[in-house]
Amino acid sequence: MSGPNGSPALLRCQGLDRWFGGVHAVDHVDLEVAAGSLHAIIGPNGSGKTTLFNLITGHTRPHGGRVWFAGRDVTGLPYHRMVRLGIAKSYQITTVFQSLSVFENVRIAAQSARWPYTFWLPASRLRDASRLAEQTLERVGLQDRRWELAGNLSHGELRHLDLAIALATRPQLLLLDEPTAGMSPAETEATVRLIQDLHRDLTVIMIEHKMDVVLRIAERITVLNFGVKLFEGTPEEVRGHPRVQEVYLQGAL
Amino acid sequence: MSAIPGRPPLPAERPGPLQLLELLWRGRAWNQLALLLLVIVGLFFLVPDPSLAVEVLIYSLWAISLNLLLGYGGLVSFGHALYWGFGGYAAGLALLHFTHSLWVALGASMVLCGLLALSSGAVCLRRRDVYFSMLTLAFAQLGYFIAFEARPLTGGDDGLGNIPTPPLDLPGLSLEMHPIRDPLPYFLLCAGILVLAFAFALLYTESPLGRVLQAIRESEERARGCGYNTRLVQLVTFTLSGLLAGLAGGLDAIFNGLEGLQPYWSLSGLVVIMVILGGRSTLFGSVLGALVVLLLEHYLSIAFGDWPLIVGAVFVVCVLVFPQGLWGLVRLEPLGSWGAVAWTRRLRARTAREPGP
To answer: Do A101 and B4 touch (CB under 8 A)?
Structure first.
């Protein structure tokens, strides 16, 4: 199994199918993501991007097709098992543990690798989980806010906390669902830098609407339209592809 | 246990009495155990009616078991009387027919109710929110009618009477117990069991598993995204909660020598009121809730026939004014628009500005 540029594929989807009632939300989509790459999925609203994510993470069972992760067939495994295998997801609508502290949000994610269901010793004794949580908070720049209630953070901070929770599960593959949605230009810039930093040791797949961001940082781009894969290629190829321009890029370039 | 897990102790540069109090509850969860011991000693010396003191201990245990679900898990069970009642039957039947050992009888309560909670929890937890509550209520009513119909076994609505009081067997010591004539040994027994169960529940809520339980309360979706089988965590808690409720029910039946039958929905409501009135963000709140409700009931029923009216009014006022419960009031939680406690807010504002370590 190898990806487009010769490196082994970390994630491979073959013929993924999913219906919602009469709507063919994801229509026979193949996707290969090379280990270490930064892969973007773009497409108009309702083109099946988030559904494709949910099929990869095990939120939704595919009606057809298979998913391999790190050489293993993971089709139909439940979401929490996928996370333990190394697939983490950050949410389109920020989802954190509101009434817990920022630190505890990340610590809970950090403990899942080694101490998921321990009940015989206090959580504060798990030094490795606490250390990982500290490191992760520093990485996303929230170390000064760690004793704040998560519910008190600003929108941009929440997005970073959301990312930190995903990172603390120590994923190999990180799925980002519109990581810059609703952000100011300055926050977007900070997030782009953060994603590039994460990409140094993680494989990243992101859904993104801001074309300037996608064309700047993605290594490969998959274009979806009405659940069908329209095109896949490098940013240059996508920019020059006439059909892609027609359905999606009108006015964006 | 603080409402904000993982919060560090406050720096005590110049601790005033109020800050000392704040350190006590916020710094270490185990300080709640000290508060519990204080309550037990207080009950011992201050409550003139010994059977009331014992009831407070037993109901505290029951309220704690529910608080694990309701406060920490965000799972509002309206059927917790099922485990209380069946725990009583298990202990009573064991003592009537099979054994003379207190520990075997209480063990029977815990095992039966643990299994009962495991099986009913597996069904109830398939639904969320109000549908979960309705399912727990339905199971409780089902249990009630089974108890009602199984007259040869449970005595039906006459209750299961004449439960003998077993001796208290401890290593190197066997004590005859007479709950009515001499309630002291039974008080000590209940106090010991309550302290152990409380310590266990504290450890459980402070453990990685307990933290996940609280995370699920905040966002089940995200907890799954952290790699947790959320249904499993909730089911373990549900089972544990039923098991502790069964233990409380067993203790109560042995104490009274009787397991009566009253509608489980009202009994379940009573313990929900205790937990919410006391404050569901801490385990000690449940002890406080049981204490206040039972004391109110005891003293009001002497003076005033329609005492449930007053308990109901107190409950309404408490929920409106102190949504965090009585313990939330003691803890000087931010009290919303209630302006009379501005000084507590000033204290909070000051402590909030101080940085963590």
So the answer is: yes
Kindly determine whether residue B226 and residue A89, on different chains, have CB atoms separated by under 8 Å.
no
Domain count, chain A: 1
State which residues form the domain around A34. 1-77+209-253
Amino acid at A163: L
Is A14 domain-assigned? yes
Ranges assigned E (strand) in B117-256: 168-170, 173-175
ipTM of the complex: 0.87
- The CATH number given to whatever domain includes residue A69 is 3.40.50.300
3-class SS letters over A174-240:
EEEECCCCCCCHHHHHHHHHHHHHHHCCCEEEEECCCHHHHHHHCCEEEEEECCEEEEEECHHHHHH
Do residue A98 and residue B224 have CB atoms under 8 angstroms apart?
no
Dihedrals φ, ψ of B30, to 5°?
Answer: -70, -15
Answer yes or no: is A33 within a domain: yes
**CA angle, corner B226, sides to A141 and A1, nearest 5?**
95
Is the pLDDT assigned to residue A3 strictly greater than 70? no
* Token pair for B41: 């000693």
Q: Does B297 touch chain A (CB under 8 A)?
A: no
Partner residue opposite B356 with nearest CB, options A78, A83, A147: A147
- Per-residue pLDDT band for B35 (boundaries 50, 70, 90) equals confident
Cβ contact (<8 Å) for B222 and A117? no
Please tell me whether residue B182 adopts helix, strand or coil conformation: strand
Does B19 or A222 have the greater pLDDT score?
Answer: A222
Closest CB to B226 among A78, A101, A165 = A165
Task: Give the model's pLDDT for residue B18.
Answer: 52
Q: Is A23 exposed, middle or buried (0-12, 13-18, 19+ CB in 10 A)?
A: middle
Query: Who's near B28: CB < 8 A, 6+ residues apart?
Result: B9
Q: Which domains does chain B have, with CATH numbers?
A: 29-353 (1.10.3470)
**Can you give A95-111 as a three-state secondary structure string?**
CCCCCCEHHHHHHHHHC
Q: Is residue A151 part of a domain?
A: no
Contact A95 B221 (CB under 8 A): yes
pLDDT digits (tens, 9 = 90+) for B7-33: 444 443 444 555 445 544 554 567 788
Residue A170 domain-assigned?
no
pLDDT of residue A230: 86
Residue B36 neighbours by CB under 8 Å, 6+ apart: B194, B195, B198, B284, B287
* CA contacts within 13 A on the Cβ side of A153: 29
Q: How far is A22 from chain B (nearest CA, A)?
A: 26
B40-60 pLDDT, tens digit each: 999 999 988 888 999 999 999
Q: Where do we find the tokens 């797949």?
A: A205
